[in-house]
Amino acid sequence: MTKTTYREALREGLREALKEDDRVFMMGEDVGRYGGCFGVSLGLLEEFGPDRIRDTPLSESAFVGAGIGAALGGLRPIVEIMTVNFSLLALDQIMNNAATLLHMSGGALNVPLVIRMTTGAGRQLAAQHSHSLEGWYAHIPGLKVITPSTLEDARGMLLTALRDPDPVLLFEHGSLYNVSEELADDAGAVDIERAAVRRSGKDLTITAYGGTLRTALAAADDLAAQGIDAEVIDLRVLRPLDEAAILASVTRTHRLVIVDEGWRSGSLSAEIAARVAEKALYELDAPIERVCTAEVPIPYAKQLEEAAIPRPADIVAAAKRAVG
Amino acid sequence: MNGPRAKQRRELLRQMIRIRRFEERCVELYSAAAIRGFMHLCIGEEAVAAGIMHAAGPDDPVVSTYREHGHALARGIPMEAVLAEMYGRTNGCSRGRGGSMHLFDAGHRFYGGNAIVAGGLPVAVGLALADRMSGRPRATVCLFGDGAVAEGEFHECLNLAALWRLPVLFCCENNLYAMGTAIERAQAETDLATRAASYGLSSWAVDGMDAVAVSEAAERALRSIRGGSGPCFLELRTYRFRAHSMYDPERYRDKSEVQEWKRRDPIERMSTLMRDEGELGDREIATIESEVDKEIRNAIAAAEAGPLEPVEDLTRFVYSERS
């Protein structure tokens, strides 16, 4: 085991991917000389050269679309977009090309592309750098959406995503980059199909992902101190959703709290709630609870931002309502 | 009479007639409800399709737009695969999943069929990047209309391709209208070749009603691109004789303007030239027409006989199927 950070774990995943496959290259804004907006790719330019670590102009649509074209041309591009808000400038390419080409071409053209981007609030970056739109992307057939929340997943999800024949969007929560933990020395590729039980419990199920996992685990600790034993599921993959894992947990605990940093209306949390209602309604002993971001653009002021996004206390309160 | 120049002219003429007759038949088939959805014809613009595809190499990737029947046919995608696609059959080049606007053929390196204006440009840049990084001496041919010049993706992509000196031939089919909006109502500077040149790439305008001029310009551009000089931009000045799509009542342009352009019909022009120079007689024309007619009849038969995708297969091709 070695103490490392989420940021370094991501970088090690990138390094391994670049080393193991000559077709892999990376491009995006300031990924090279600057070292990445959040420092993830620091040092990779020196190690792999400017052909494979490509700084791009501020042209999200062009370089995301170029990633699609390069994937069609036989390469394995990793495209970095600074934040999910900026990805909207490339939404045409992601939605109308990456997600549709395989289907529109009758299966002839697949797009093995990985797009990484930062998501989420908590750093006082206000309403154009802080939103959680991964749930939007999870709405789109043809895409896979993954959200590493642990160092192990930060290290290993990218490698599996690059071996996938179809486009994969990888969301890194901005609050995680500095998280420092132990990581196994032999950490490597991990699955990008299943949810994971991060804490076993019998009294209720809490689902979370990405940046909200740590919030949910903190809430579970508080609940344990109050005699409530929560199971915490890390969704890991938002599309395709590991519905079986959620249903299995709810079948054990009979209570569900869904934590989602997206807005409540039309969100991933709504999708999870609907599926549980469709397939496990009679397993439930209490109404489903949701803890989501308040329906406001994320504000700058610290106390307002904190009040806008899911906090441990909000999850604890929801859990206590569910347990009754 | 049988020199390389005559041979080239005859091939360009044959290709243009083939495209014209195909498009005319598509109108009938659309009226008979055999083809549905949006359908955009390139009648009047055949010289661009024939000329560009004549110049492109078989390994050069091609990215096109929703007005791409002519590009696909001239590229060599079998007519029956193009027509069956418009019939929505599994023997269509996109298995009936794309239709008129989304013709794809991996074998012919034909990457659509993109119905978002300018949406194909970034993909073309990426295909060229892959060829460059893999050391393959190819050039990506990227076709789009004058409407695309108003989109941000156009400017992002010309800049990126020029910045990285990527092997892309940008072919702008300037037919003077973005659907119903005349170019002077949409572009502050209507000289598109000049605007493209501001990105630091070779750029020039070509008479898009002259297939030989188009072909020679594309050959020259492709030589330059393959020589490592970076991307080129061709403004192909052309005109569509028919409406934007099958739903267009054409309220936005005068009939006299259409008539004026019809005097420059690329097929008439080429056949007159060839007749005048003794390269073509009635018999050759009749032979081309008869071969094309037969090809179209065979394509219709193949499209009509093509199987429909079973509804059980609806959700296939959303994700790759693993063997």
What do you see in this structure?
The complex is a heterodimer of chains A (324) and B (323). Chain A is an alpha/beta fold and 324 residues long. Chain A has helices at 6-20, 44-48, 60-72, 91-98, 101-104, 134-137, 151-163, 212-225, 243-253, 268-280, 302-308, 312-323; strands at residues 2-5, 24-28, 53-55, 76-83, 114-119, 144-146, 168-173, 180-183, 196-199, 204-208, 230-234, 237-239, 256-263, 289-293. In chain A, the strands form three sheets. Chain A has a seven-stranded mixed sheet with strand order 3-2-4-5-7-6-12, sandwiched between helices. A five-stranded mixed sheet of chain A has the order 9-11-10-13-14, with helices on both faces. Chain A has a two-stranded antiparallel sheet with strand order 1-8. In chain A, helix 8 (212-225) links the parallel strand 10 (204-208) and strand 11. The model of chain A has no long low-confidence stretch (mean pLDDT 97). With 323 residues, chain B is of the alpha/beta class. Chain B is 46% helix and 12% strand. In chain B, a hairpin with a 4-residue loop joins strand 2 and strand 3 (110-114). The radius of gyration of chain B is 19 Å and the shape is globular. Classes of the chains: A alpha/beta (324), B alpha/beta (323). The A-B interface holds A 25, 51, 56-57, 59, 61-75, 77, 92-93, 96-97, 101-110, 141-142, 144, 165-166 and B 61, 63, 90, 92-98, 102, 104-106, 111-114, 116, 119, 121-131, 133-134, 140, 152-153, 156-157, 159-160, 163, 316-322.
